[in-house]
Target: GL26175
Amino acid sequence: MDKKLEALGRELAIQQELKKSSQQVDTLSPLAEIEKNEKLEAGLERIQQELEKSSKQMEDTLSKIAQIDEKLYTQGRQIEIQQELTKITHMRLQRLLVFEKIGSKYYYIEKKIKMNWSDALHKCREMGAHLASLQSEDEIKALYRVLQPNQWYWIDLNDIKKDREFISATTGLPGTFFHWNENEPNNKDNSEHCVELYTFTSTSQSLMNDQSCSDGNFFICQTSWDKIQHKTTQIILQ
Ligand SMILES: [Ca+2]
Ligand SMILES: [Ca+2]
Model:
């Protein structure tokens, strides 16, 4: 009987122990859950911080790229401007290079485009020069060697203001040197007020003639060595 009671007692003890263990498991479970959640939250927070850090680094990188872009754009524009200025300088210098020394003077002889006297006058002025202001037979002889034969070229003399009073458009003063062809100036039809130089191959000379200012002619621009030097310096220093 005692043995039975003893066995029953042991069984009861085991059951109580099991129940106790079961209770312990039940009470531990919510704690584990909380711990798990806390771990998850901590993990999420770290991820969030990492993301914020990455986002900030990305913003910094983009900002640096924008700064580099701006710098490159500015440098690019500076190079473009420099190239443009070089091109303009080159063009201006080239315009000066068209003047050649013929005899003792510097001329540009237009041999391709014909225009009226007034336009030719302005064209020479645009080039920083003036229509040829001839002063001697030597100058005309020197030009004769380079002018196209049997062609007319405007020079600076005209009697626009008063017939037969030929003025130099360069100085505004009465002309001092004339080398007229035979029977010229004739002021034909009372409408010839501008002077041209004509190259006669038959007599191997260039001679002056008064002609209608509206006629289309080639023309001769003139400048001086001093002007060329001055302009070259101006262009290079600009
Ligand atoms: Ca006239
Ligand atoms: Ca005439």
About this structure: Residues 101-237 form a domain with the Mannose-Binding Protein A; Chain A fold (CATH 3.10.100.10). Residues 226 and 232 are 10 Å apart (CA to CA).
